[in-house]
Amino acid sequence: MASMEVDLAGISLRNPILSASGTFGHGVEMQHMVALDELGGLVSKTVTCQPRPGNPAPRIAETKAGFLNSIGLENRGIESYIESVLPEVDSAGTVIITNIGGESVADYAAAAEALAGFDVISALEVNLSCPNVGGGRLPFSTDPKKAEEVLRAVSEVTDKPLWAKLSPNVTRIEEIACGAEAGGASAITAVNTLLGLGVDWRTGQPSLATVMGGYSGIGMGPVALRCAWQCAQAVDIPVVGCGGIADAEDVLAFLAVGCHAVQVGTASFSEPGLLGRLAGDVEQLLDEAGVKDVLDVVGCMEASR
Question: pLDDT of 110-139, one tens digit each?
Fold first, then answer.
């Protein structure tokens, strides 16, 4: 049987399958559907220093191939996360990565500092890229210097590994990845949602109250795969692929372009148990192909033909 263990920036994962932020709650909510200790790790929904009510409804809309969402980082704030969530996820039996967000460099640093002393958290995922706040403006994920500034500020207040989550809504994502790496990122998560829009032509009403929102689902898979490959080519730190992943073939495609792990998001809505069986499905494909170690697939794509 193929080995599925992965070392990701000093964090040992039993397999390369993780949940994606915002699509699996904090993880414990799903333990009646998925054995959490079978996952490589759980990535929390975004946590901010202060509670956020989120955006007005409607803020989720189904499309032909995925979802539009404009949640707006709704959460109860970091104090509630520390008091209510961390004690529960401590018993999950898998690696915990906490996703943090902010509207300023100081916000990110304050969130990271507040969580620095909790051993249950193995890494912080720094969400530079939510398209549903600030009117879709993404200064921290569209400017390499801004990305570097955020990561540098966060790295000064915590020793935890930092994963920079990037936006696909840029021209040269590799430049943003390099900026995050220069600031102290330990890994890159590529990517967050595409900016999208839906409308009912009969009523003239947009699908979301904010008009634009984040598009996720299988339709964005090729875009996310391209972004992940560009990041993997540009940086010396590991890349975690995210976007449009729905089965074991998708997982291995992301590994082939250079990712060391993947995050699964929207596919969990239609099949909540998917995360629990993906590692087994990947292992079966590797065994059928005679591959002894999942790491042998990482970066195997031949870029020139």
Answer: 999 999 999 999 999 999 986 545 544 557
Question: How far is C-alpha 85 from the chain's CA centre?
Answer: 19
Using alpha carbons, select from 126, 58, 60 the residue that is nearest to residue 266.
Answer: 60
Domains of the chain are 6-55+72-198+216-296 (3.20.20.70)
Say whether 130 is catalytic: yes
From the candidates 49, 130, 231, 242, give the one annotated as an active-site residue.
130
Instruction: For 24-59, write each residue's pLDDT tens digit.
Output: 989 888 888 999 999 999 999 999 999 999 999 999
Q: How far apart are CA 282 and CA 266, in angstroms?
A: 19
Question: Alpha-carbon distance 215 to 200, whole Å?
Answer: 17
Determine which of 108-122, 126-140, 177-191, 246-260 has the lowest per-residue pLDDT on average: 126-140
**How far is Cα 186 from Cα 7, in angstroms, rounded to an integer?**
12
Residue whose tokens read 């495609």? 253
The pLDDT mean for the chain works out to 95
CA distance 203 to 76: 35
What are the start-end ranges of the H helices in 212-264?
221-234, 248-256
The pTM is what? 0.96
